[in-house]
Amino acid sequence: AQSVTQLGSHVSVSEGALVLLRCNYSSSVPPYLFWYVQYPNQGLQLLLKYTSAATLVKGINGFEAEFKKSETSFHLTKPSAHMSDAAEYFCAVSESGANSKLTFGKGITLSVRP
Amino acid sequence: DAGITQSPRHKVTETGTPVTLRCHQTENHRYMYWYRQDPGHGLRLIHYSYGVKDTDKGEVSDGYSVSRSKTEDFLLTLESATSSQTSVYFCATLSGADTGELFFGEGSRLTVL
Prior knowledge:
The complex is a heterodimer.
Chain A: E1 3-5, E2 10-14, E3 19-21, E4 24-26, E5 31-38, E6 44-50, E7 56-58, E8 64-68, E9 73-78, E10 87-95, E11 103-104, E12 108-113
Parallel strand pairs in A: 2-12
Antiparallel strand pairs in A: 1-4, 3-9, 5-6, 5-10, 7-8, 8-9, 10-11, 10-12
Chain B: E1 4-7, E2 10-13, E3 19-25, E4 32-38, E5 42-51, E6 54-57, E7 64-70, E8 73-78, E9 87-96, E10 101-104, E11 108-112
Parallel strand pairs in B: 2-11
Antiparallel strand pairs in B: 1-3, 3-8, 4-5, 4-9, 5-6, 7-8, 9-10, 9-11
């Protein structure tokens, strides 16, 4: 069975600092991996996805993530945080094939200090 | 231009009353899902549908039922609401059939007193 671990529930960074949100996954087959972002009182929006092409994936708003099979990780980074990045971030995994279903991590809340 | 519309967006009800949440999509997607979001639990799958009249259970289906009589509509029903069902409910459609990528609605906040 697939699973996702997002350690910690809250990360706080200063504006302009590096953002690093960690995600580790477990999957019995080659996975597809996703990061979603949720702004207050909104639904989830796809930030980026890994679907077995390039291991370094670039997403919206300057975010990127690197798939590392040896570490079973898919950490999300952004070189310079902006106040507008404050949100909740979810990592999710699915297994390839028809009728694949996403399994979500518990989410991490990112705060950005002025 | 929203592809998914959820209604109602907010609802307060009392324990023991029935509640139905509606999800309407305009993208003609075959698969539709209902998730609930709770602090510390992330999103958990309640039920999903893989076509008209074809539904299946997710990991937290107890106390919930669903129906899908048309491609565009997916209903979630709480037959007798309990306080533990206070949550934010999200509908999603499968926008990436091979990868599992989902597109989400804006959510419905349900409070059961």
